Amino acid sequence: MNRLSALLHSTGVLMPERMVTLEVPGRRTGRLISFPLVVADYQNERYLVSMLGEKANWVGNVRAAKGEGLLRHGRSERIVLEEVPIELRAPVLRRYLAVAPGARAHIPVDRRASPAEFEAIADRFPVFRIVPPTVSSAGG
Prior knowledge:
Elements: H1 2-11, E1 19-25, E2 32-42, E3 45-49, H2 57-64, E4 68-72, E5 76-83, H3 90-99, H4 115-121, E6 127-131
Antiparallel strand pairs: 1-2, 1-4, 2-3, 3-6, 4-5, 5-6
Helix pairs in contact: 3-4
């Protein structure tokens, strides 16, 4: 299912703008792996959130790849994912739940919850800011 979703997301055909495919090398095999994800926009920035928390495969692969990857949605975009510090995640998590209805079953707060409720769970859900490789400190 993940592979089919990733293929559909990457084409951009009949898929909402927010749905993308992230491609990163596997941390064990080095082989390119695709993950269907939803982009959350917040304060003129774009973010990827792990609705499955720390255990999501893509999170480990992104960390091993030092954030470097490729986003696909009809076109390809080289990116670097910068992990957002826990204390800054709450508003992005709130926005993510507003734009990714499928994530609501995985994140244990209501999308209209208070900022404090999002702060209480922020350490459990990695958030990454999407930046072009030349802007990122990791990208040079």
